[in-house]
Every structure is written in structure tokens, then in C-alpha cells.
Amino acid sequence: MVQKLVVIGAGMASGRALEHLFEAQPGAWEVTLFNAEPRGNYNRIMLSPVLSGEKCYEDIVIHDDAWYAEHGVTCRFGEAVVGIDREAKVVKGEHGDVAYDKLLIATGSTPFIIPMPGHDLDGVIAYRDLEDTNRMIDVAARPGAKAVVIGGGLLGLEAAAGLRLRGMDVTVVHLMGHLMERQLDEAAGYLLRKELVSRGINVLVSTNSRQILGEDGKVRALELENGTELPCDLLVMAVGIRPSTALAAQAGLAVGRGIHVDDQMVTSDADILSVGECIEHNGAVFGLVAPLYDQARVVAKTLTGEAAAFTPKELSTKLKVTGCDLFSAGDFAEGEGREDIVFRDPARGLYKRLVIENDRLIGAVLYGDTADGNWFFNLIKDGTDIAEMRETLIFGPAYQGGASADPFSAVAALPDDAEICGCNGVSKGTIVSAINGGATDLPQLKACTKASGSCGTCTGLVEQLLEVTLGDAYAAPAAQSICGCCDLTHEDVRRLIKARELKSQPAVWQELGWKTVNGCHVCRPAVNYYLLADWPLEYRDDPQSRFVNERKHANIQKDGTFSVVPRMWGGMTTPNELRAIADAAEKYKVPTVHVTGGQRIDLLGVKGEDLPHIWADLNAAGLVSGHAYSKGLRTVKTCVGKDHCRFGTQDSSGLGIKLEKKLWGSWTPHKVKLAVSGCPRNCAEATCKDIGVICVDSGYQVSVAGAAGMDVKETERLADVATEEEAIELVTAFMQLYRENAKYLDRPYKWVAKVGLDWVKEQVVENLEERKRLNEAFELSQTVYRKDPWAEGAARPESFAPVADLTLQAAE
After folding, report:
1. Residue 667 three-state SS
2. C-alpha distance from residue 504 to each of 15, 62, 205, 786 (Å)
């Protein structure tokens, strides 16, 4: 007896189920197939080649009219289903009802549209079906058309790539920190972004959208959270999909995230099955085609009465995004007890990362070379003990037995025109030519090229070029690397960040051959500082790469409470400020109130949960963070100067306040303390500070590189100037020169000892153009970082839970 089967949805999952059913029981089923699209089953995975012009619709059709006719399928294409009458066992279509013995719901998924202002404008579309693809093709045909794609997942990137191949100006906007974060780790995401940018696609990560702007009902631009507008004629939302469950829910079927099904793909109604992206099985929903085809096989067996059960399998993801080979499998998140094996080849754009736990491979991410992906996947799936092959595991099956690899040197990968010695403008090509011409050591290179002959920060790179060029003929002196994560010194890392324009942590890890996935507690704070100092507009500060004090904007004490120090400009205060501090101390039961050596008041013993609240109270009185926890400007200590003291020669308090208001908030390699004394009697102790100014009758004596901590050292005279403006300009220029060149955690006196005061004077005092540039660069950075973190913290107190992670402690 022929049974009636109604199928709602003519997608790939239901199409595969029909194939299995017709093969198992030909002629046993009278099938009616509804589909909201005016067509049958086609390969949605291949919509991207249609968009890019590599294929047409006819190339991706799976079931054509002849196939449906051959199997006697009644096609109700372009007709929506408006309801299901379970009691009468009838599907209600727009153009009439159809009775069923069994019903298969395969409604798939619907794209999520962010409900931001303007989402309903003409030109705002999802990327889900052939209609969407054709609309995108039509807009791309307009001369000079621009597109914005929201979403850096696989679908969004394929849309961006296809539109770019059609000649559009394309920008991808992604909320997360790296592309395809579900399939790739940060390093592989960085490489993918780099490749897409090289293909002419602008990619913005860690970027939120505010609203879509329109004109005459059509999309005009996307406005970002920071106010930037991205003009566009087409805005594609590819931010995710959701199971399409409305019809099932309306019919009273059990629905959660998707339509609930059991192992046989049967819903809460025994005569209704479901398959594909619309279902939920044991709490999981599905988007990849492999599990959907497994479900389709089970559906066919269930309909024919055979025993079958759907069991989700561990999946690997092998993808190709615009020619970029990617592979991921297993669990590659960081975790307790897990170890990483990482291989990077910056010159070839390769990255491989294996995650090991208890001598088992549990995760793998490959970029650029995915040939061994299936082998790694089998090791994960089978739980193979890899202890015996651990040393060569990263090199794949062909290398089991002892082969080894040596990652390519980062400096060797630099182009010949890359600047190595910034002081003297010497390129890599010039240095290599000199080596080939007979210079075999550092002194000879200095003599003929001047490379490393000034500040010395490029010495490590010059020595590496000697080693790469001369090979065994050169014995490089031992140099201390930044940490065990890489073989480069601080100076090398800093120089390469600039030379190769590396503007993110993943870029540094990949391009400079880091041996770990994301660095460690030693190198992360240093790299974070170098990036924010060198690229203040492009790089976003990473709080997780900071010491706990800098993350909490307060100094943690040995009992887990915090020390809060408001800023007092130049050591000056008012009765209102003092009253606010006293009120806060009483209100939050602060056990200790201490006057610091930097002319400020320290509130010791503040509970972590009280931090945002005490900050809010202090902010209301006009007090801001004193950055007593920071690698940055701490204090500007002053005496009262000529306004009150009979020995004072200049307004030392006024100058101190001006300096502090200009310099505060700036991150530096280590803490920086200033002082301004109104006369040579030096009551403010300016001669043992990082930067000190002594006021004299003729003007101001500016000195630098003092110390009064574990080392005690008098400052060295930088210059004498006649005006406050010149003093401020000199101090700012010195501060920026220190920020741009010093090793992380070197105080100014250590840095000046390395580069020499003569070189500092040459840059700051004698070279007026360089002094101007340094001042402008400092002010540019301050447009980002001259802000009060207490005010921001007070506005979001929920982010300041009690501290549990103290892995990055302050090293004072």
C-alpha cells in the first residue's frame, strides 16, 4: 500500500533523505514537496562560487525537474505552508491542503538580522539563498558600488570574497577579536585576516556596529560604535543562523532551540519527523552538512521501518576561504594541564598548532598546509597515545622516525628595503651587501654602514643578519631573549614590530616565530606595551596582558584588598578634595590613610567590590586616578615655588601641574616620576627623579635619568631653557623618546645608560625637527590614553568582581 509523505522544505538534508527512501522502497511513497523558494534542491554550499562568477545556478542544482518527475514527486515550489493540523494529519498550504501518513519537517534555518536601527532599509540583506545571491550580484554590477559585510564567519567571508571578485569595494566588520573564532584560534585568524587584506578586502575586528544609515529608504552607510561611517550600497548581515521552528511550534510540537527529535529523528508526534538545521538533538543543533546527511540516512531508515539511530560524530572542519586552506578539529581551547606544540613559518604563511593532554592529541589547528589534517583528526578521534612520536608529531605522518624542522628566521624573511637601523636609515639590503663585501663582525659593519652605531637597539638584528648571511663562519654572541617563548631580545622584538608593521599580538606571535600560542606572563605585558606605544591608533590595549594592578586600576595588597591613590596635580589639593577623601575613607571603612612620598594620599585596605563605588565618589569631587599602579606617569612632585617661598625663583607648582596634566595617562616602559624644585635648594628632590626640573633665575635646568630606589643615582643634565614652554617641550620629547625605544621594565636611567646621553641630546635638544615629531607623536598617543580609568570602571561596576587571577603580579 502506497503511503503519503509530505515534506516541508526542499533543502539538502530532505533531498538526501528522499534519495535514500526512493532507493530503499521505490514506488512505496507518494511524496508532496513544499518549498518556500520557487525551486527545488540545490547545493547551498556552492552559492559562493555563484556569487563570485565562477559558477551559475545550473551548475549547483542537485535535483532537477526530471528527477522529481522520475520519482513521482508533486512539487509545490514557491508555496508557503501556513499550518499543520496534527489531528486531521493535514498540511495546509497557501493553495490547498495535503493529507499525510508521515510528515517530514525540514524548514532549515533563518538568518539572524541584528535589530539595530536601519536594519529594514532597502539594500540590507542576509546571505542565505539564491535570491540573496542574485540581489548581491545586481548591486555589484553598479560602477563604484561599495559593500559592508557584518560577520567574520565562513559565510560572511565568502560573501566578502565573492563581492570583491565582482569588483566591489568590500569591508568586513567583525565583533570578535579574530575571524572565524569558532573554527580557528587567534593565530590562524590573524593569518586569514592578513591574506584577505592582501586581496583587497578591508577587515575590521573587535568592532561593534551602532546603526545603519539610510537615504530615501535605501542603505547609505554603516555607523560604527566609535562614530565612524562606512559608506555602502549593500550591507550583508552574516552574523549567524537560527533553527526555523515557528511552524513546528505553532503545531504544538516540542521545541527548544530547535525542533526536538529523538535518535530516530522523530519529533514529539510519532507521525512527524524532522531533519536538518531546524532540529535539536540532545541539546545540540547542527549547521555542517556532514551530520545533516547522517540524519537524512536515519530518516529514511525510520520511514522504512529499519532500525537506525543518529549519533553525532566528532567533526573536523576543513575549509577553503578564497583560496586559504584551513583545518581545525577537536578542542583547541587553552586549559589546565594542556600543552601546545606550535610550528610557524612566517615566510610561507604556515601555522600549525597541536593541543596535547595526557599524551593524547585533543585538538589541532592548521593554516596554509592542511595535507595532514585527516591524520591528525584520526589521532584525536581514536585517542592515540602520541608519547613515542611527540618530538616529530607536528611534522605529520611522513616525519615519524626522527625528522626535524627549523623555523625560518624572522629577520631573514624581511625584504631588502626593510629598515634595520632607524637612527641612521640603514636597510637590510645595505647591511647584507656590506657583509658580502667583507664585513664579518659588528665593529666592521658599524664602520662601513653605521648600523647599530647610535642608540644600539638594532644590534641584535644586525648580529642576526651576520649569522644568517655568514652561516657557520659567524659566531654570534649570546643574547638574552625576551623569554622562553621566542629567541628574540626585547630590542629585536621592538624593531621588528616597527619594521614589519605588526599591529596585533597574533601578528607578533606568528611573524616573529613565537614557540607558544599566546605568549606567557613575561612576554605578553612587554609585547602589549610595544604595540600600544608604536601603534596607538591601530592597536587596542589588552587588559589581560597587564599586571593585576593595571587591570584593577589599584594596587593589590598582601591581604587581597587594594590601595587607592587619587591624583593630586603637582602635589596641590583643596579643602573640597580633602573632604571627599575623608568621606570616602569613612564610608568604605578604609583602615589606613597614608601620605605618600609623592605628595598624595593613599587609601589602603579597600575591598575589591568597593573599588568602582569609591572611584565614583572621588570622581564626583573632581579626583581622578593617580595611576599609582601603572607603568606610566606616577607623580610630579613640587615645592611651593616663588608664590610663597622667599627663595623660589619660578612658579614650580604651576609648572608641575602643567607637566602632570600633559603627561598623565601615558603608558611607559616602566613607572616614571617627575619633580620640579623652585630653586637649587631642591626641596622637591628633583635631582633623583626620572625627570627633574630645577628652577633658576635664568629659567629651567632639565635633567633626566635619576634614581632613588634599589639604585641611587643623580640626574644628568639634558639642557637649560629659558621658558616654561621649552621645558615642557623638552620633557615631553624625552618621555616619547623613552616610550619609543626603551626595553619594557627598564627605568629611564637604565635606558639612558644603554643608549648614551649624547644620543638622547642629539634627538631631543639638537634636532628640532625630531623634537617636534616626538611631541606630535606623544600628543597623538594621548588622544587615546589621556583618560581616567576610574571613571570608566565606575560606570561598569559589574566588571570588578573580587580578584581570583593573580598570575601577573606587579614587579616593583
Report:
1. strand
2. 45, 44, 11, 21
